[in-house]
Every structure is written in C-alpha cells, then in structure tokens.
Design goal:
CATH architecture of the largest domain: 3-Layer(aba) Sandwich
Distance between the termini: 29 Å
Helix content: 40-55%
Shape: globular
Number of strands: 11
Number of helices: 12
CATH class of the largest domain: Alpha Beta
Strand order of the largest sheet: 4-3-1-2-9-10-11
Length: 275
C-alpha cells in the first residue's frame, strides 16, 4: 500500500528542528522537506513575496501527494497561512499557533516572553496569537538574531553562546517571565543554554515540539495516521546547491540526513548530491 507523506517547508534549514520532532512523535510517517535556500531569509521580504514563495512551494509539495502541510517557517506562518489554508486541499499547520497555545496554557503569572529573529519579533505574530487566546497575558518580545548563526555553526554549548544568551535574556529575566517561547526554529538547538540562563522556574515552550503534537492530533482525528509498525522515509529538496544544507542539516538531525535534491521551481529540474 502507498502512503501519503507529510510536507514541510522552511526558507532554509531551521525547519529541520520541526522535522526532528515530527520523526520522534510519528516515526512511521514519510516526510518531504523543502528548504528554499536560494531565497532565504524570508524575514526581509514583503508579505506579498512571502505569500508567492509559499504558494509555489506548496504547489510543488501538493504535486507529490502530501496529506498535510507544515509551514515550518515563522515568517511564512505569520503571513501566508490564511492564503494557504484557503487554497489547499490538505490541512495546513504553522509553527506560531501551537507555540502560542502552549504558552497560554502553562503560564501561571501571566507574563510570557517570546524570543525570535528580528523579523518575527517585528511582526508581533506571537504576541497577537497569545493575546487572542488570553488578552490578560502580558507578552514581552525580544529579538535574538545571533542565535541563528550560533546554532548553524554548532556552537550550542559553549562560553560564547552563554555570554550571548545572558545579554539577550537579561531583560526577560528582570521582567520575571515564567514562560519563554522559542519563537524561531533554530532556537531549540540552544535550549540547554537558554534554560540554564533563564533558570528552573521558567518553562520553555518549544514551537517545534508543539507543532509536532498538533500534526499528530490532526492526523489521528482524521484517521490519516500510518500504522505504527511502519518506518517512515524522508526526502529533502532545496533551491540552491545542497552542500551547505547537508552540512548544517546533519548537525541539526545528528548526521541522519540522506540524499538532498536541488530543484528549480520553474521547471522542476532535479539534480542530486549525496550525503
């Protein structure tokens, strides 16, 4: 029997943390990951451009018969989700709503921090999503742009990362947030250091984990889960030379990346570079 895959896309490699959590929660599921590495980052693009990019990638994935689409990009989740949900024949899950929902559930003090890239924080997407769920929650947002290159370089547990985290997070510690949303798909790699800096009384909300839980719930409700005895296969597509994606992707997934295919969205010409 042929099983449909879960489609996942991001502007680059960050969404692989979402893929990692999906494979933990649903190891039986096939996945197709699309990294738009030729056009990264999305945060500097106009909303219309991000919507167009997202529609192109969604079309590419739909042609590969996916059963659900995960928008594993905060910018695209903030901007393109309504358009994709209206136009696609499959469920569409973003990374903002699951993280916001969890933060609203677990905060006791009603003071929630959100960290992300400058573009994500500027969009106020997490703040709006949390306040839609509970208007009484106070949301403090802090951009932490250096966390992305630190994660991609593999500097996830060293003194440079700790110093950077202390400088970025001091304001949120002083505000006594009791919940902190990791509002960038790169940040789960730095979870250990962030938790160390914030202290044991602060609950970290990993949007990648929450997104995986949401996907599992939707597939179960729709009776679309693959039998648990199966083992999923994983395919990767990028829009630029795969070498950099493979190098960083192996770091994100612990060396588990397989073949990565370079694709042109114009004519779907494929070339492959093996791991």
């Amino acid at each position: 029997m042929s099983w449909q895959a879960i489609g996942i896309f991001d502007s680059g490699v960050g969404g692989l943390t979402v893929l990692r959590e999906l494979t933990k929660a649903l190891p039986q599921e096939d996945t197709i990951y699309f990294g738009d590495t030729a056009r990264v980052p999305y945060g500097t693009k106009s909303p219309d451009t991000v919507i167009r990019y997202s529609q192109e990638i969604a079309s590419f994935l739909i042609k590969r018969d996916i059963k659900l689409l995960v928008v594993a990009c905060n910018t695209a989740s903030a901007v393109a989700l309504p358009t994709l949900r209206r136009s696609l024949p499959v469920p569409v899950v973003g990374v903002i709503e699951p993280g916001a929902k969890r933060a609203a559930e677990v905060t006791h003090s009603g003071v929630v921090g959100v960290i992300g890239t400058s573009g994500t924080i500027r969009s106020s997407a997490y703040s709006r999503a949390i306040k839609r769920l509970n208007p009484d929650i106070s949301v403090l947002a802090k951009p932490c742009p250096l966390f992305v290159p630190l994660a991609e370089e593999g500097w996830i547990d060293n003194d440079v990362t700790r110093i950077t985290a202390r400088l970025y997070l001091e304001e949120l510690r002083e505000a006594q947030v009791d919940t902190l949303v990791l509002g960038c798909t790169h940040y789960p790699l730095l979870k250990k250091v962030i938790a160390e800096v914030m202290g044991p009384d602060v609950t970290l909300v990993d949007s990648a984990e929450e997104t995986a839980r949401t996907v599992a719930t939707i597939l179960q409700e729709k009776s679309m889960l693959r039998p648990p005895a199966e083992l999923g296969n994983h395919h990767y597509y990028v829009t630029d030379v795969p070498a950099g994606f493979i190098r960083v992707g192996n770091r994100f997934l612990g060396g588990k990346l397989g073949d990565v295919y370079q694709v042109s969205l114009d004519d779907c010409r494929l070339s492959t570079e093996k791991d």
